[in-house]
Write the structure tokens for this entry.
Amino acid sequence: MSEHSLTVSSAEADLNNVAFTTRLEDFVNWGRKNSLWPLPFGTACCAIEYMATVGSHYDISRFGAEVVRFSPRQADCLLVLGTVVEKMGPILKQIYDQMLEPKWVIAVGVCASSGGFYRAYHVMQGIDNIIPVDVYVPGCPPTPEGIIYGMLKLQEKITKGGIVRARDRHKIAR
Amino acid sequence: MQETDIKLLANILPNLPENIQSEILSVEEFRGETTLSIRKESIRRVVEFLKNDPSFRFDVMMDLFAMDYMKHVTPQTERFAVVYYLVSLLQTRRLRLKVFLSEEDPSVDSIHDLYKAANWFEREAFDLYGIKFNGHPNLTRILCHSDFEGHPLRKDYPSDKYQRLKNAMPSEGL
């Protein structure tokens, strides 16, 4: 078969065997959602459940989020695991501010989400009073399955979100 | 002290000198735990004696805390009490001392120089109950944040009254 007899349609078919096309946004988000670097802000029993989630039995590395970092500069997913009192609020805010864009926040457990059963003088009634939250995981404490489900929900959210508007998305009033 | 209290005291703590016995208002024995109610003015002298006397040697202060007897099931003539938990390693026994304080003047002498541990415990009792400890070197809040008003563990503090921290540490310039 000569070179000239190759039709346009068959060339396209050959290309599809080695590459596929997508949008840049989708490609970047695919990379981001499968390599989340979490920063655990553990203050209560939810942090113990998170340890089980990272451990070999539940193994969060199956979802690409096992590289736990304790520096906000190296993380992009803040996990607030436990009770946050009003006095600790500024510290949590500072850690969030130190994280680089793009960044996401998961409130794990009812204490971080709404104050939980601590409706009293000391506990902040949900960390969304001071920082934006992407996913709330209910439970007291949530099971490791619950935390994994929260991670998957965050991955879903990242897939659907844009990449340029990430900074705007986090602008909330305080 | 009543006649029964004097007999009880002679059984539990024999050889207590007369000038210390005269400061004891009542003695209570419940399931092997002894509670002495002490005159407010002389608590420092009694604690000092119990700590330093070679036959008693209550050399550890386990705990120091305040109580609010408002709406209590066993009503007392005074509203507040400060409770001291002493341990003697020599006698291997515990002793509880109690000082009742009036609502108008909830103040008592500090024992921070007798037991170093008392320093922060007294600050805690001041923070949560508003008890004044005369002679304390730094009687400031230890648990509640700097903007907090009132004393949250007093029984007339509303159980769901939450106070925001307004003048938080700034997080700019990171």
Residues 33-169 of chain A form a domain with the Rossmann fold fold (CATH 3.40.50.12280).
